[in-house]
Design goal:
Number of helices of chain A: 10
Shape of chain A: globular
Number of domains of chain A: 1
Shape of chain B: globular
CATH class of chain A: Mainly Alpha
Helix content of chain A: over 70%
Distance between the termini of chain B: 64 Å
Number of strands of chain A: 0
CATH topology of chain A: Rna Polymerase Sigma Factor, Chain: A
CATH class of the largest domain in chain B: Mainly Beta
Oligomer: heterodimer
CATH superfamily of chain A: RNA polymerase sigma factor, region 2, helix turn helix motif
Strand content of chain A: under 5%
Number of helices of chain B: 8
Radius of gyration of chain A: 20 Å
Radius of gyration of chain B: 25 Å
Helix content of chain B: 25-40%
Chain lengths: 194, 370
């Protein structure tokens, strides 16, 4: 097993994306290492075929490297990667008769008629799927993951995920920082007394 | 909704002309599938496939840091320094020669892994010569000169479904395999070939390939031989050609030596021609020196007006080294021909005679300087 340098493993997704844009190969490698298990499982679940999943993941990461300079992330890195997989799965479905595999399932789905028409709620559903998949990772891998991507979500995204407004998220963060400050302050006072 | 309609829907999704309602159907369905489909994937399969994916990507890992060894190494070097000091103190006439000693790195060799249809993985580097495995109706033999041969041992009863085998070479490895139809494939370092163990019941001889390989396809007009590699399909009836589609190279290059091949269902190549297919764009064809393209297979490196980065990528793969640049890489191009089985210092020395480039070797790391 190759060890990663602690500095890259500790970078947030946002930081890694910025470094990738500047052509940092180590950042690119770290993104791959961080997301490979999640994305492979996700792709394999949908495709049920090892070679197809291999192709989709390698094509996605090759494109990520080739397009690094023009990468313009409007959403978090994880949303971007999962979105790319979705496009590639759809792309694959229309090729090489793969669609036949999904036809029954799509037809059945349409017959049931339960669609989610709100685009934001659909995005939230996908985000929830990502969270569930992260939660299913082995504990150690999950922990690294959760730590390193904490700084990655915008207030808006956190709000959407937790179903609260952006303002509420800001307020909560503000409160948390205030509580921390108080605690640190009393600790410092205590410390100076000793 | 039939197949055609679903296809149209996805196409509209891709090119952005889909209506909000239709988009809702597709994305909701996708979410439902992502949430509900069961996952039958063992850790072993996951690991194996991720390794395969990694080998296709331009990943770069920093040098490894292990805890114990640096300390042992420091201790050892102190002992050596003390010893050397004592030695030079006693024999001062030897001190000159020590500066000549240089680190060196040996060449690659016949190394590969074979994955059988049942997922069993065999190291061909370590395997003894002779029969190493059997597949339905087939025996697999490793010969003394580093070659893998598939031969039919008996008429296989019925039309048993042929399984797939995969042969993969690591960095610093190469291997040669003869498939059951008599086709021979030479694999350069960091390459992989996936093929059915029997072509008997198949209309086409289909294989998948990544990396660099030279193919001598056995003639069989009735059963076209098809090589699928990232973004390219080569269809042949019986011919000799070379494919180079390493993930860290700009384009897939297909060079024809004999016969004719068809690329992606349209472009036809003639002997002496090379097709270049960039990651995004069209195939272009040029006349080239074919000896240069297959030099690797004949145990040589031939560089003709090649830039240093391209040369170093080849050395990286064959000598299993990590290359880094100090400052901007030299812009000059280099021309050289040298044996692949020499130590790396020989080629690096040759290149540095030009005075346009210099090298530092440290362990398995090479630093390129102007």
């Amino acid at each position: 097993m190759i060890r990663r340098p602690s500095t890259y493993a500790k970078h947030t997704d946002q930081k890694l994306a910025a470094l990738l844009q500047q052509g940092d190969e180590y950042a690119y490698t770290e993104i791959f290492e961080r997301y490979k298990v999640l994305l492979y499982k996700h792709a394999y679940r949908l495709l049920g075929d090892e070679d197809e999943a291999n192709d989709i993941i390698s094509d996605l990461f090759l494109a990520l490297w080739q397009k690094r300079e023009s990468l313009n992330l409007q959403v978090s890195l994880s949303s971007y990667l999962y979105g790319s997989i979705r496009n590639r799965v759809f792309d694959l479905m229309t090729h090489q008769k793969v669609i036949v595999r999904y036809l029954d399932s799509i037809q059945e789905f349409i017959a049931q008629g339960h669609y989610e028409t709100d685009e934001r709620i659909r995005a939230k559903e996908l985000a929830a799927i990502i969270e569930r998949e992260i939660a299913a990772l082995p504990p150690k891998m999950r922990q690294v993951f959760e730590f390193s991507r904490m700084g990655d979500l915008s207030y808006k995204e956190i709000g959407e995920m937790l179903d609260i407004t952006e303002g509420t998220v800001k307020q909560q963060v503000h409160n948390a920082v205030k509580t921390l400050r108080l605690k640190i302050h009393s600790f410092m006072v205590l410390f100076s007394l000793l | 909704m039939d197949e055609k309609e679903v296809n149209t829907l996805i196409e509209k999704y891709q090119n952005g002309t889909i209506s909000a309602g239709e988009k809702a159907i597709l994305e909701s369905w996708y979410n439902q599938q992502a949430a509900a489909r069961p996952l039958n994937l063992s850790d072993e399969t996951l690991e194996r496939n991720l390794e395969k994916v990694s080998s296709r990507l331009p990943l770069k890992y920093p040098a490894q840091h292990k805890r114990l060894w640096p300390r042992v190494a420091v201790a050892a070097s102190i002992v050596m320094l003390m010893g050397a000091g004592l030695f030079y103190y006693r024999y001062p006439q030897f001190s000159q020669q020590v500066n000549v000693v240089q680190q060196d790195i040996g060449p690659g060799g016949n190394k590969a892994y074979l994955t059988l249809a049942d997922g069993k993985k065999i190291s061909l580097t370590d395997a003894a010569n002779g029969a190493i495995a059997t597949q339905p109706g087939m025996s697999i033999t490793k010969t003394a000169d580093g070659q893998l041969i598939y031969s039919i041992v008996q008429e296989h009863d019925g039309r048993a479904k042929a399984g797939y085998n995969t042969i993969e070479t690591p960095k610093g490895g190469q291997f040669r395999v003869r498939l059951p139809d008599g086709t021979e494939v030479w694999l350069n370092s960091q390459s992989s070939l996936r093929y059915p163990t029997s072509f008997e019941s198949l209309d086409e001889r289909r294989v998948e390939f990544a990396g660099e390989g030279y193919f001598e396809v056995a003639k069989d007009q009735a059963h076209p031989f098809i090589v699928k590699s990232n973004g390219q399909t080569v269809k042949v009836l019986g011919t000799h050609f070379n494919i180079n589609n390493y993930a860290d190279e700009q384009a897939t290059k297909t060079t024809l030596l004999e016969g004719s091949v068809q690329l992606n269902g349209q472009t036809i190549l003639k002997p002496g021609e090379q097709a270049t297919l960039p990651a995004s764009g069209k195939i272009s064809i040029s006349q080239i020196d074919v000896d240069e393209a297959v030099a690797w297979k004949n145990g040589r490196f031939n560089f003709a007006d090649e830039n240093i980065e391209s040369i170093m990528r080849k050395l990286e793969r064959w000598y299993n080294v990590e290359v880094s640049y100090e400052g901007t890489p030299p812009t000059e191009t280099f021309t050289a021909s040298i044996g692949r089985f020499d130590n790396i210092s020989k080629i690096l020395n040759k290149l540095s005679y030009t005075n346009h480039v210099h090298f530092k070797i440290k362990g398995r790391r090479i630093t390129v300087m102007r």
